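User: Before I run my own analysis I want an independent prediction to cross-check against. Here's the chain; please return only the structure tokens and, at the end, one sentence I can use as a sanity check.
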Amino acid sequence: MEKVKSTFPNILLSLTVICLVAGIALSAADKYTEDAINASKAAELQNAIRNVTPEFDNNPAEEQYKVAVAEGDSITVYPAKKGDKPVGCAVESYTRNGFSGQIRVMVGFDAEGKLFNYSVLEHNETPGLGSKMEEWFRRDKNRQNIIGRDMTKGKLKVAKDGGDVDAITAATISSRAFLDAVNLACAAFSGSTDAVSGATGAAADGDATGGASGTDANSGATDIHDSDDNDATSPDENITVRDGDNNSGSGGTVNGNENQE
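Assistant: Structure tokens:
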């Protein structure tokens, strides 16, 4: 058999075929993984909704709708039903007023407008301080617990802003931001487009109402320690912060860059 001559057209044709086969293979693999990723995300969303709402038998994700809020944004509402009867809903809410930026939460309500449960989907708050929001506001201690609150009676505010919710120790900005996101979810649930809660106003004013020594994250905050917190001193020093969940204190140390040991 005569050997095929190695010419430029032959080389070009070979490379074209190889690239074509590789492209088809990569496209098929991408499609396969994309379907798997989408299925995983759908399952995660369903579980997030189930964790914050009363028991339902519909598919809230298929019946979701958007509610317009301030600044041209919108948030998603997932209605929960059982036997075609509404039993509540889950609202995927957010705030950009966290100490370290955006906080995303899933907030659930029952059919009577009471806060059924919540879960924190995303945050960048300081570990050991603002990060405590994941459990702080559901614990039956002092005035921390917001579960079961009748949200038709008004917005949630930290005690320093005249409300009845205890802020996380040494993390008032994070606490205000979290409640801001919950209030936004409630506004969407009730059909209101008033996206700005009392918590937002306080944070946007540099915590002037709450008396915090730092300002909010959108204005370049560098300190979340409240001037009237007995558990914290200047952020330029190594300080000791007692865990708000333990009256005896955790003995943790927080340094100037907010890293708790």
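Sanity check: Residues 56 and 85 are 9 Å apart (CA to CA).
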